[in-house]
Write a structure and sequence with these properties.
The chain is α/β, with parallel strands linked by helices. The protein has five domains: 206 residues, Alpha-Beta Complex (Cathepsin B, Chain A), CATH 3.90.70; 107 residues, Protein Binding, DinI Protein, Chain A (2-Layer Sandwich), CATH 3.30.910; 90 residues, no CATH class; 239 residues, Pectate Lyase C-like; 85 residues, Sandwich (Immunoglobulin-like). It is 12% helix and 30% strand. The protein has nine helices and 61 strands. A hairpin with a 2-residue loop joins strand 60 and strand 61. Helix 2 crosses helix 4 and helix 5 crosses helix 6. The N terminus is likely disordered.
Length: 841
């Protein structure tokens, strides 16, 4: 490393002597000389007049550093200890404010802390630091601070009067308003750099504890960039609107003495509301100093300013990082009308960085739906997503755009790797996502998504065994649920939730989770505790195969999932719950699911510490190495209906269930305490009078029932959550009485399917009404079921809701009171039946 590079890169590059000796103390006169020589040697300012405006001192009132303003503009911060590099920060344009330090206080406090630490240390002074002091004293160092990237931001905005014109009214604040907030100011200046977007997307409202409701309609606002000058001294509606919208987007905690917000919300706001879909939040603690500096420099080399934040006394600070010099001093726009803007060292003692973070990769990335509200994604697309021909490949960014509940994303078959630079996961779930895989890439906008051939068009999200595949950054309200349908999520790897890290109200239909792993909990899924007890995550018709973790090989459930028609095969946990681990005080509902060939130390298939309700499931051929072969149930209030426990073992010895359970109409190998329990033979079939399960081919995980099975018509029709369909979407009750297990015997059922052309349902999705068109030559009965198979409503043509006579060709169903989600509509006529889905918004 040469002398020029080393010159001003660190607050401390010294190794130090014990105590503070007189020869290491720098008084104001000597500091002023050092500052003068630095300025004349590195700028066009000759014979500058300096004004010492501020001194930071220690507890004994001895100086730690001096701040000098330059009369012609600029400042220099000088260390008061020769144990530290002489120059800490500088500018040749902007002064410090003599009445306060503004956001630069963050750096001043860091420097002050570090110098006090150095002064109390007992290590000798580094010879190179001494050489820097000698060179500056003699004036022999010249032209060491040339910018590599000149400051990118031209605006000199603030957060007080005029900028805060639409902040909440408060008589104690500047111009009788709360401050706009440094977070909003930094966001606004970065967006002004790009003059983007023309319009935002969506809207947001939150309730402030003091000022009440704060709301912004981004999608209805045109941001007038040409009306935003570099600084203002009077009313400016365009800037004030932008500042307020940025504040609302991050739930600004407004106040008359200062306004603040969490910096980790900036990434989501920039993506969801303002079209900067590639924005990424990064924390310094996740990187070495060398990696951090290289990452910042790389971003600035691409001419992309960054949102920068740190915390300390008196609180958090948000500014803009927009340049650097050849000594790795970074330029910061302080958001204080230019005061304090300058080049600052970001090095400090022993890796303590006060929660520094950046939001980087902020750049316009236009993604636009077509007129039907569809965004098209293909593996090799390079367009804006407005058609298959103009598709985008950026699924991870498109998801942030499709967050209004009215926009769908159609994803062509292929493999997608997402954002490899996002530490949280390759893809992010946003509220109100409606994302569908399984397309061939030539479907028209009128195509019925229920007719996708997902198996023929596999749509793969791949973590490459290096990262989590999908994450959800926050809880969603029930009405803001997100839906992902028709994907294979594979090769995810993380500390928890190798495939997906979930909060609440995310739905996954028709998905496969394969070969995902986690060092801790949830090889495929980690579901965290909800923000409200009525929220849920739903998995329907999903496959979990060959996932592994320490606890919950496929799923670690800390919310109470709803699992319907799912298959768990060959998952593994090195401690508990080979397929599924349920945490305490959770209320999962498991319906029509198969758990087969999973392994763990304890609880080969399921380790349940919650209040589980299981209906019509198969827990078969799972193995534990220590205890609890099939199911371990810790909570006696859990209930198990119409389910099969067979072929499970502990170290090769049959073991189906351990723990106190409420079993009703279940079939258990070698029996178990409960109501109406069938004692199954360990063998699948035989010729004597034993109760053999009679599965079709258990060696191939085919657990359909043969006609001779004693489990046919042996269940209880009154079981809780009894669905309308079985795991294969055959009729759940085929012969008047439900079977035991996930598979209903279909041999005696003769159902004629109507032609789709005889049946239409619209609009889909729907908010208030669904209209069902039928063959008007015969009377029709329409039944609506939820995803758990529960009958929601039955309508007979010619009765309530029908639009005309008994043989009307259209039936209108009022769905305004339905909960948001997916529903099945079945139409029955004398000629047969047909079933389709619709989405209630």
């Amino acid at each position: 490393m040469n002398k020029a590079l080393k010159y001003v890169i660190a607050i401390i590059l010294a190794t130090l002597l014990s105590g503070l000796s007189a020869q290491n103390f720098v008084d104001e006169t000597f500091a002023k000389k050092i500052a003068t020589n630095f300025i004349t040697g590195n700028s066009s300012k000759q014979n500058p007049k300096l004004d010492m405006i501020h001194t930071e001192t220690d507890e004994s009132s001895e100086a730690n550093l001096y701040i000098f303003n330059i009369d012609s503009g600029g400042f220099v911060i000088i260390s008061a200890s020769k144990k530290v590099t002489p120059i800490l920060a500088y500018s040749f344009e902007n002064n410090f404010n003599t009445d306060g330090l503004g956001n630069a206080e963050y750096f001043i406090n860091n420097y002050n802390r570090d110098i006090e630490l150095v002064k109390s240390s007992d290590i000798e002074v580094n010879s190179y630091v001494s050489e820097l002091w000698r060179d500056l004293e003699s004036g022999s160092i010249k032209n060491r601070t040339a910018s590599v990237v000149d400051p990118l931001i031209e605006t000199r905005w603030n957060q007080d009067c005029y900028y805060n014109e639409y902040a909440p009214y408060d008589n104690w604040g500047p111009c009788s308003r709360a401050y706009a907030g440094c977070v909003a100011c930094a966001m606004s200046q970065v967006m002004k750099y790009w003059n983007y977007p023309e319009k935002g997307k969506g809207s947001h409202t939150y309730i402030h504890h003091q000022y009440g409701s704060q709301s912004a309609d981004f999608g209805a606002t045109t941001y007038r960039w040409d009306e935003m000058p570099n600084e203002i001294w009077s009313h400016n509606d365009a800037i004030a609107t932008l500042m307020y919208h940025c504040g609302v987007s991050v739930d600004m905690n407004y106040g008359a003495d200062g306004s603040g917000a969490q910096s980790n919300k900036v990434e989501t706001a920039m993506r969801m509301y303002f079209g900067y879909s590639s924005a990424k939040y990064k924390e310094r603690d996740d990187y070495s100093d060398e990696e951090w500096i290289a990452m910042l420099k790389g971003e600035l080399d691409e001419s992309r300013p960054m949102y920068f934040s740190g915390s300390g006394e008196p609180g958090g600070h948000a500014i803009v990082c927009d340049g650097y010099d050849n000594n790795d001093f970074f330029h910061f726009n302080m958001g204080w009308s230019g005061i304090g803007d300058g080049f600052y060292s970001i090095d400090d003692v022993n890796g303590f960085h006060n929660d520094e973070a950046v939001v980087m990769d902020i750049r316009p990335l236009p993604i636009n739906p077509d007129d039907n509200g569809i965004i098209y994604v293909t593996p090799d697309g390079d367009g804006d997503g407005s058609s298959w021909e103009n598709a985008t490949s950026e699924l991870h960014y498109a998801a942030s755009v499709a967050s209004d509940g009215n926009t769908q994303i159609w994803v062509k078959s292929g493999t997608y790797y997402g954002d490899s630079k996002d530490d949280k996961g390759a893809f992010c779930i946003y509220p109100r996502n409606r994302i569908y895989g399984g397309f061939s890439g030539n479907e028209s906008p009128e195509f019925d998504i229920d007719n996708r051939d997902i198996d023929a068009n596999p749509t793969i999200l791949d973590g490459e065994s290096q990262r989590r595949v999908i994450y959800q950054s926050d809880h969603f309200s029930n009405s803001a649920y997100s839906l992902w349908d028709g994907f294979t999520i594979q090769n995810g790897s993380a500390g928890s939730g190798g495939a997906i890290y979930l909060c609440s109200n995310s739905y996954f239909y028709n998905c496969k989770f394969i070969d995902n792993s986690a060092e801790g909990q949830g090889g495929a899924i980690y579901s965290v505790s909800p923000s409200n007890e009525s929220s849920a995550n739903i998995f329907e018709n999903c496959i979990f195969e060959n996932n592994n973790s320490s606890m919950g090989g496929a799923i670690f459930d800390n919310i109470g999932l709803k699992l319907t028609n799912c298959r768990f095969i060959g998952n593994n946990a090195t401690t508990k719950g080979g397929a599924y681990y349920v945490y305490m005080n959770k209320f999962p509902e498991v319906v029509n699911c198969l758990f087969a060939n999973n392994t763990a130390v304890d609880g080969g298939a399921i380790y349940n510490r919650g209040n589980m309700t299981m209906t019509n499931c198969n827990v078969v051929n799972n193995e534990a190495h220590n205890s609890k072969g099939g199911l371990y149930n810790e909570v006696k209030y859990s209930r198990f209906y119409n389910s099969i426990f067979w072929g499970n073992s502990v170290a090769g010895v049959a073991n189906q269930i351990e723990g106190e359970c409420n079993l009703i109409n279940c079939a258990v190998e070698d029996g178990f305490n409960g109501t109406n329990i069938i004692n199954l033979s360990p063998l699948n079939n035989g010729t004597d009078n034993k109760q053999y399960p009679m599965f079709k081919n258990p060696d191939e995980n085919d657990y359909e029932l043969l006609v001779e099975s004693p489990l046919i018509n042996a269940g209880d029709n009154s079981a809780l959550n009894l669905p309308e369909f079985d795991i294969n979407y055959g009729w759940r009750i085929g012969q008047g009485k439900v079977d035991i297990g996930a598979y209903e015997y279909q041999g005696g059922v003769d159902v004629v399917e109507l032609n789709d052309e005889q049946f239409e349902i619209y609009p889909n999705p729907a908010r208030d009404f669904v209209k069902v068109s039928t063959d008007n030559s015969q009377q029709s009965t329409v039944r609506v079921y939820n995803t758990l198979g529960m009958l929601v409503e039955e309508i007979i043509a010619g009765t309530r809701h029908a639009t005309s006579a008994p043989y009307s060709d259209e039936i209108e169903i009022n769905v305004s009171d339905y909960r948001s989600g997916v529903y099945f509509v079945e139409v029955y006529t004398a000629n047969g039946s047909v079933t389709k889905k619709f989405i209630k918004e």
